[in-house]
Records
---
Amino acid sequence: MNTILNFAPLGIIIIMLGVGMSASIKSFLEVFKNLKVLLIGLLLQIVILPIIGFLFASFTSVDTVFKLGIILITCVPSAVTSNYISKLIDANVALSVSLTAITACLSFITIPFILKIVTPIILDNTSVFQELNFFKMSLSLLIITTIPVLIGVFLKTKFSIFVEKINKSYSTISLLIFLVIILAAWFSEWNFIFSLYKSIGFLVTFLALTILIVSYTLVNLLNLNEANKKAIIIESFVQNAAMAIIVGGTVFEIESGYLAIAAVYALLQYKILLLLWATNKIFKKINKS
């Protein structure tokens, strides 16, 4: 676990730099032209998801450390894989990248605010939060998320030809780093996670399905076009479990309950998406025949 915490922040910096290089000032401006869609995506990611996390933490009878894991996984930005998935399902990729980049940039404010100000109100065990330093937490997240994204956007804007040449390879590297962090978390705590899978598996599955249903319902109520719907749903659903692992370990340095929630959610979110994709394919074949 210590090895993960020592090297994972560097991995997140590399990933966030890639997120920035996937965006550009031009793509941001295009997305900002449809401000309603952007605000809906940000509302879901920054406000509604943490509320879902707080509700689960408040009404589930699990240890405080697991409640903290639930809150962590719902307050981190979307994962870099959301951009790949958006491309595969013909979603609005520019919107997806913009939401990933903006939520990552804002995370140095949103995550410390949620963990230091709001979470102690929800959780009974406030001793965990007494020594948290809001400024230190914000500075750490600024360094590993916001600054790399902004540098990436700058590189994309100023050196677009060079970035275009390396973007495919860099994206692959970023994806591999993300997967290594998750897999390392799984293997470093395999016995712990495996023993808890039966007790928290249903809870995390229910959490993931709730997020999926809430985001799907909201975008359909607001009559967005299909590409924007898909992008916002994926951005809300695919959470950055690697960042939840790093933030939890770096900030709290407590038992691995937060890691178990993040690692299980990371696995389940892709299982659920794969199942939905396969089901959709089957129904399309049936309808054609």
---
Amino acid sequence: MQRKTFAFIALSFIIWRLFLFIPVFIAEKNLNYRPGYEYTNITEARNSTDKNIVDKLFLSPWANFDGLHYLTIASNGYTNNYGFFPLYPTLINPVSKIFGADENFDVAYFFSGFLISNLAFFLALLVFYKLLSFDYSDRQIKTSMLALLFFPTSFFFGSVYSESLFLLLLFSSLYFARKKNWLLASFFGSLLTLTRFVGICIFPVLIYEFYKSRDWSIKNFVKSGIWATPTGLILYSLYNQIQENNFLYFIKAQGNFLNNRSVDSFIFFGQTIYRYIKILFTTSSSQFEWWIALLEIGSFIFISLVIIYALKKRIRFSYILFSFLAVLIPASSGTFSALPRYILVAFIIFISIGLIGTKFKLAYFLISITLLSILTFFFSRGYFIS
């Protein structure tokens, strides 16, 4: 990678990271934390009235909602939160110990998670550039990277969430698959299945890439190690069986969050769309949840259109396949809740933005940056976004 390219990526990352503090700072000064949702914030979870450096530097919002679950797992292990896969909190724990963490929600736990997320995202951008270099021009790639950085829910990449680690492992697996280094592709793919459930979508993608590589034979497939890609998920399933007597307890555990997500069957899209239309026509737009419902169904429509566009533009089929499967799983659960965040891994979105015309690019960035500012603003004050 050329020095100029690295400098562009580094500068873009820094600008994005600093930009996100603007809506957080404004929200801190102008919006009270959402009443009844104080438990979603690390300051409340610490059960302390004394402000520490996390609060003083406007950092606490980056561990809101799911971030607290990851920090809890990192410090105390699993309780009823098996829906959160173990690789990310497992990485937080030893890093926190290095910095002297000794209690729940210790500052060291927060900074370890915050560091891992932001470092992983920066590395993911570097690998993303190298991955796209196989097929696209420098200008197209840089546009795609900016589209990723300023996507409306990209603030999750800078939060104590597993999204950035997932993206790094995903791009790494695909990059080595393109290099026909199947062992490394499978290794990163296995780690991906240990990060989030939809990581398993990399398995059929690697099989497809291997088949298209013209190396296909049973003997070569066994030697490639691709068959071992689901190892991470299998190990976590075994852990669930040992602890809860249920190999798939991590799916059942999703029902603990009371988000109307079906944990025992797939729900046809039509039913979910009908439900959202009903919500939008029967709920007052003065309620915050009405706007989130609009955002959720809007995300479903958006990614559906992107998949169609990606097929038309003949974006690499394995990329489309992963994006489609990774969205299909959560979208088939009877709700589009959290879909605005889940579609972050459907990276054909950002490739598509690099290919569209200039007017559409300008419209995308104008809308996207506006939404990113608004959503970060509310997320930082305890309003559920995704």
---
Amino acid sequence: MSELVFLTKEDGLIMGPISRVLGWILNGIYEFLTLFTENVNGIGMANIALCIILFTIVVKMLMLPLTIKQQKSTKLSSQMSPELTAINEKYKGKTDEASRRKMQMETQAVYEKYGTNPMAGCLTLLISLPILFALYRVIYAIPAYINDVYDMYKLASDAIRGVEGYAETLATFVKDAGITGLPVEKFVGYDIGQLTELNVIDILSKCNEETWATLANAFPSISGQLTSYSEPILRVHKFVGGLNILNNPSWKSISVLIPILSTAFQFLQTKISMAGNKNKNAKDDPAMASMKSMNIFLPIMSGFICFMMPIGAGLYWIISSVVQIVQQIFINRYMDKITVEELIEKNQAKRAKKLKKMGIDSGNKMAQVAKTSTKSIEVEEPKSTKDYANLSGKKYDTASDTKETSDVGDAEEKNNDAPVSGSISGYANILKNRNLK
């Protein structure tokens, strides 16, 4: 029978390396705190709660560049939204191929005008999401990433695995103690040796003060050992006010403040974040209306979730929200000093630099396009109306689809029978004449 694999240390292709890096940071913070052996209010400086606080601050600061990038993308999107909405309204209900292609071309022209692309915001999100998931994974599997804490649990694990029939006893204990998040049904009936050291540590990491006492009773032959091994584990998990971050919040103790503060700070965070969005058309934007509803629903939902999870999870959410509030205040001030024109100019410069690395001269891009055969142009759709507008000397207003005619060269002036401007054949004819010239 194959060895059981619990969710001990993340080893996925993407999240695995990220989790390891975050784990090194968390372990480094813990080892740094162990240098201070003094106690503060009876709490050792080498404390998991303090580690989570510092760890969250460090990771959020490392992610700050991505946050700023996302804010810049949001600012551009708010300016582009009216133009994109106008294009969608213009072609609303038109399902023919010609209209669909024109809609795509005009939409692309808007993105080129602002020097961005439809995937700009998504790419930032795709980068930040694995980091956030890995962050949760590390916090929920602390013994797997902090060496000293792992050693504490290892002593208890070795003692349990030395007891005959420990697998069945652990399965019964997990059910009776109401521990969730572990696939107990998969190891019921397993013999000695089929639960690895890491599997047992996973179970022990779910224990709080009450369940440690229940565990000691489940293994009477080593109850004294388990009690002594649990003392340093519980001590490093203590928090202010006598709280233990392994316990769940309760209405009868000060721990009730954890879910309340988590909800309050997330509300404040979303409010400040929305304040940074100066989109005048936000009221008419369905996406913004949907986001506003989610910003109310998610904090309330997280507050309820906090009651069903250990205090450590709620502590992370509180610190994360506080850090993001502080960051957002400074980001909002920074973004107020940046105009859309400056963002466009920087985007265009980055794009030109990227094209240059690819061996493409952005200044002669249209000349390269002009060398394309007219036959291929009629088969493949042009990439944007902006490119052809530059060739023909016409300025396209994507919202109204109006065109201002100017000089397009001697070759075009002499061609009185040229196809209608704006059609695919018209674009091909412009390219053909320019190539001849």
